[in-house]
Structure formats: C-alpha cells, structure tokens
C-alpha cells in the first residue's frame, strides 16, 4: 500500500504524468538563447529569393557577393549555407518547431508582436498586459530566471543574462539585482571581468553601432562565452539582437550576416559546453525568436499586430532529455508562453507554482 501511495502522489492530478519533482531527467543546466526577429523564412529556407533578387527594396549593396555567400538553388541548401551549425549539428540532436510548410506551428500569444512583449511572454510564461511598449521598465512578474535562482537558492551570478539590447536589464527581472545581467553598452563589473573578456569589454565602447541601446552581437557573445567558462551558471540566457535592428534599417545583407553570426555564436557556446565536464551531456539548449516579421518585399522590415507574419516564430530544444527528431511533420501548435514551463520542467520545478497562469511545457521537448 505504501508503494502505491507514493506512485499516486507522484502523478499530476488527472494527467497520468509524473509531477516535475518525481520526474527523473538528465538535464542539470539550461542555456536559453534568443535571436531577435529572425524570420521563419530565413531559419527554414535560408536567403529569401524575393529579397536577394530585389536589392532596391532589400537594401542589398553587393548582390553578387551576397549570392556567393548564401545563395543556393534549394531552400534546404540555402538554410545550410546560412546556418550550417544549427542544421548540421544542433537540429539533429533535438526538435525544431515552427516549419509551417510541415504543419508545425509556433506563434506568439501577446497581441503586440514586438520585442519586450515577446520577451516578457517568454520569461513569465504568459503575455503581460502591462507591457505594451519597449520602454525600459522592470518585468511586472517574477521571471523564470529569478524563480530558478530563488527556488534553487543560488547566488545571483549563478543565474545570468548577457544581452545585446540594454532593455534586458529590466526585461530579465522584476527586482533589480536579483540575477546577474549585463546588457547594451555596459561594462562588466571588475569582480567578473576575466582576461578573456577584457578586449570585448573595452571594444564595445569603440566599435559602436547605429543604435544607442544595442551593442554588437560579437561583444555579447565574447562576454557571454567567457562568463560561461568562468562563472559556470546554472541557468544562462544569451540574447542577440542585430538581425532585428538591421531589418529595421532595410539592410537584408546585414540581416543575413547577423543570422550567420548567430549560427557561429551557437557553435561557440556549444563548443564551450562540450569541453566542460560540468556541462557536457547535462545541458539543454532552448533557442527561439521573440517575434516574426512581414512576408513581403515591402513589409519584411516591420513587425506589428497588423502585419501578417509578425506572430509566426520558431523554437528549438536540444539536449539529453529531448528526442532526436529534428524537423518532423505535424508537430502541432505551440507558443512562446510555453518556454518558461519547459525550462522549469528541466529543473524539476512546477510551473504552476511559478505562475498559476503559465502555459504548459512543450511536450515535444521531452522523451
């Protein structure tokens, strides 16, 4: 009788599934990576023929060079040219959701379809009604980053975010200083500054971008990879941004370069994880974008609730507890609201305790 009782209380009410506390998973660490506004077209199809072949409306300055780098005859070959590590290595070790041509659908749930509302949805498990702009205000709800740190009783530096956009200093936390965050043109505090960070830390103030609140993704990656090595965080968030910003500038050539650098960033982080006995075989990656963009040669630069395609996103999950399915047909419908619960399930934490209105974990992310 005692054994039966233990089994019953390990089940979620009415579900037949083990509760997070009872479920035995291999994952001990999670790395969350977001890339701002990278469309489904580029992730699943590489360089968009409409834009590559219309330099006037895509802003491509050297069409011949761009085609040499990223143009191939098929969509599969183009995406592999643009994102070789993602498709050649990572996708084979997990699941990739959102290829609408394969009847796999991922969307945003918030009604705004731009950055802060998207990130708020990702980090709190639901759309946040109070977040209606990109204004730098703290999250109205505890974020999944703060919750993991609090529940696991970790020092602030063990749950960390390194981000290109300065507003992440507010996006990632309800309470200032509850986690470590370095975002935008911001120097690394001396106690965390390693020799490997010094060049990027100094360069960010000299290698300026066209945007006052967004530093180069190279700086963010360089700092993030060194932080990963030195501080070995339990939960780590890396947020890249240049794909979105160059899109707004109508520079499709720079968008593709930024997307290719995103792929290199994944390679760099993955290499660091695989070289570490602490992380290797015990880390799950969750990778996604915060919103989509327009589909046409006229509106691809924008994303609002009135532009078709702005709500269409993708999510990839790679790790020891995720089936090696890559893309498969008819993978159902998901939202970015499910990311927080998915992260919590990897840690054996209950998303309903975190937020009673949190969306459910992504079922496809688990064996």
CATH uppermost class: Alpha Beta
Rounded mean pLDDT is 94
The number of distinct structural domains comes to 1
N-to-C SSE series?
HEHHHHHHEEHHEHEHHEHHEEEHH
Overall SS class: alpha/beta
Q: Sheet with the most strands?
A: 7 strands, mixed
Number of helices: 16
Q: Roughly how many Å is the radius of gyration?
A: 20 Å
Descriptive overview:
The protein has 367 residues and is of the alpha/beta class. It has a single domain, classed as Alkaline Phosphatase, subunit A (3-Layer(aba) Sandwich). The protein is 35% helix and 12% strand. It has 16 helices and 9 strands. Strands 2-8-7-1-6-4-5 form a 7-stranded mixed β-sheet, sandwiched between helices. Helix 13 packs antiparallel against helix 14. The radius of gyration is 20 Å and the shape is globular.
Summary, kept brief:
This protein has 367 residues and is an alpha/beta fold. The chain contains 16 helices and nine strands.
Task: Compile the SSE list and pairings.
Blueprint: H1 2-9, E1 29-35, H2 40-45, H3 49-52, H4 55-58, H5 63-70, H6 75-82, H7 84-90, E2 94-97, E3 104-107, H8 115-124, H9 144-151, E4 159-163, H10 168-171, E5 180-183, H11 198-203, H12 217-231, E6 235-240, H13 242-248, H14 252-274, E7 283-288, E8 315-318, E9 332-335, H15 339-346, H16 351-354
Parallel strand pairs: 1-6, 1-7, 3-9, 4-5, 4-6
Antiparallel strand pairs: 2-8, 7-8
Helix pairs in contact: 6-7, 12-14, 13-14
Note the main attributes of this structure.
367 residues, alpha/beta, Alkaline Phosphatase, subunit A, 7-stranded mixed β-sheet, two-stranded parallel sheet, globular
